[in-house]
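Amino Acid Chain and Its Fold in Token Form
===========================================
Purpose: to set a sequence beside its fold so the mapping can be learned.
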Amino acid sequence: MLLVAALAWTLGRQSAARTSDARPDAADPEPAPPATRAPLTSPTAAVLGSTNRASGAVSADREIDDSAAISYTLSHDLRAPLRVVEGFARILKEDYGRQLDRIGNDHLDRLLGASGRMNAMIDAMLSLAQLSALPLAKQPVNLTQLAGYVLEDLRRQSPERQVETMLAPKLLVQGDPTLLRQMLENLLGNAWKYSGKTARARIWLSSSVRDGKTVYEVGDNGAGFDMRASDRLFGLFQRLHGHSEFPGTGVGLASVQRIVHRHGGEVWAEAEPGKGARFYFTLPD
């Protein structure tokens, strides 16, 4: 409830003056938020605005401005009160934890855990907001190679796991290598996570041709999900499994969808509870 109150206070304020003192909870001085672009009003701008090209440019500029405003709010207005909550909770834990009983310490642990999850969600939202602002730098990309790098990182993080991985060779596409790696990190990371309780886990990346289009598939034989909830799959903060069972922010698949759409492709999924999930995407040349 304290976290909710702090966030509600921040979002509800209109133009409160920022203050700073020597207390550890005081936020650092912050620059003014990005200014909104003025509308085009000159005769030349009016003529240009009547064309599709100019309209698209203005729309793109506004989208970048929106992303900058969202990033500012997340980085400063939301994170500042969260630092207060987390900071004082740590002080209570370190200075007065011995005087509290087991229940009191459990409350503090829950508060610190919730603060950590909120920080992770803010980081994920910042990453999502930046996807719209980053220009696409299309070039030849080897998805097989990228997937191999991602799986190597996952193995280093969990060396105790034995996972069978299968990567189709030479999956070459045109796209932004940074964004496509982020997409694979989310898809393969999910496959790794949701197959964590499977005795003989399998993860794969493959491709096939459907209706003349190349369709790429990332699949696993893990927990899967009920397709009746598939309409919520790519929504922001939409999770089909409990956090205690499979931790996460609920932002990864929203990022995947945004990256694929920016490349002009489509993404969808098929799954069955207890029998794994398969995520499909297209990346037009």
In short: Confidence is low (pLDDT under 50) at residues 1-64.
